[in-house]
Amino acid sequence: MNAPRKFTDLLLYASIALLLFGSGYKVAEWKITKNAITPASFTVFNATGDGLPDEKGENIDFKLFWDTWQKVEEKYVDKEKIDTQTMYYGAIKGLVAAVGDPYTFFLTPEENQQSKDDLGGKFEGIGAQLGLKDNAIIVIAPLKESPAEKAGLKSGDYVTKVDGESTKGWTLVQAVSKIRGAKDTVVTLTVFRTDKELDIPIKRGQIKVPSVELSSETQNGRSVAVITLSQFGETTNTEWDQATQEIATKWKNEEIAGLVIDLRGNPGGYLESAVHIASEFLEKGSTVLTQETTDEWDRVYTVRRAGELLDIPLSVIINEGSASASEILAGALRDHKRATVVGQKSFGKGSVQEALDLSGNAGLHITIAKWILPEGEWINGVGITPDIVVENVPEEGNTITNETDEQLKQAIGAVLK
Fold first, then answer.
1. How deeply is 379 buried, as exposed, middle or buried, from its count of CB atoms within 10 A (0-12, 13-18, 19+)?
2. Exposure b/e, 110-124, CB count within 10 A at least 16 = b
3. Residue 353 among the catalytic residues
4. Would residue 349 show up in a list of annotated catalytic residues for this protein?
5. Lesser CB count within 10 Å: N end or C end of the chain?
6. Is residue 1, in this structure, part of any structural domain at all?
């Protein structure tokens, strides 16, 4: 029996955008030999709903494709850069990109695995959260049980060098790109701690980052729980259920006055996970979203379980990096008047992708539908405007902290009012 297919609704990370560029066009099986190519003409049939070809075919002459391929192999000056496997994948990428949808794209086996690792919350590096303070790279916190923590990196360490290269003038993105690297490789950080510099060699490893983080904040003497959702991935539902059990207990015992869900920078993930989390706060039978396709039927996602937090005061923080599944959650809670939405307008992605595994471990993400919020709004290209619009403006050379986070303060205030 085939495993159930998973539908994804995800905003692709900046690196994924690179996958959209390719060249060539290919729609039929073909073989490649190094020195001989046989031009061919094919009749291409579109598949019908039952998987069988329709009766009307379209004649495609592949002579131009093969001529181009052959000329590249014959004429290109740097023969060492001609790799037939890379050209083959490039041709398929060009085919898929030709539909003109930025969320429909082909992935090589390596890219497909990376995509799965991303949704699983995995990456390779040292496992430390970095920030900027006074224009200098600072360690906010090493992750628990991470290579960084085991090597002795501490919160508050200023990173002055990476492998001997000064970090003066670096942006946060530059620092992360230099420090992150393949598992089992070593990076040496020079840090300034108290009144001396230390060289700390760190062996990189595979880092598992939780998608759900639970903390608390106090305002005017009252405590509010804060859940930060970084994505809707493979383990999000399990992590969410564990966190909400703790929140439900504290709410019942009157230890907290409400809850803030932080969706800032959350690019999305599995649609079903957004429905699962929305169901924590909405009554059974409530509509979370409607999925519209080109078929004659639409699928309505409704609440099918009893939530643990149906009456807790709630606010949600979004920004321009909150997309797809994040917008489903924020929009559903807004439309049902269950939460106050705070922050900046969200990204605006209203389509659903299916992630398919192809032969040779390659992959295909393909747009299959668009989703509509409970009140009938399609936010694609528009985004969600918060009930309370507030922008964080960091001081020059510093990153936002909880003390300077105006969006968080406003979200907590909305819960406590």
1. buried
2. ebbebbbbbbebeeb
3. yes
4. yes
5. N
6. no
Considering the domain architecture, whether residues 358 and 282 belong to the same structural domain is answered as: yes
- Annotated catalytic residue within 230, 231, 279, 353: 353
> Is-contact 290 369, C-beta < 8 A?
no
The residues, ordered by sequence, that sit 6+ positions from 107 with a Cβ below 8 Å of its Cβ are: 19, 115, 362, 363, 364, 365
Do both 34 and 86 map to the same domain? yes
- Of the ranges 20-34, 262-276, 400-414, which one carries the lowest mean pLDDT score? 20-34
- Does one domain contain both 128 and 54? no
This prediction's pTM: 0.76
Determine which one of 291, 315, 322, 324 is catalytic: 324
**Structural domain of 42:** 7-119
Q: Summarize the confidence of residues 80-100 as an average pLDDT.
A: 94
The whole-angstrom separation of Cα 405 and Cα 391 is 9
Cα separation, 75 vs 79, in Å, equals 9
Would you give the DSSP letter of residue 99? T
Query: 271-278 and 236-252 are packed helices; what angle lies between their axes, rounded to 10 degrees?
Result: 10
CATH number for position 317: 3.90.226.10
204 contacts 147 by C-beta, under 8 angstroms: yes
Q: Which of the following is catalytic: 115, 273, 326, 349?
A: 349
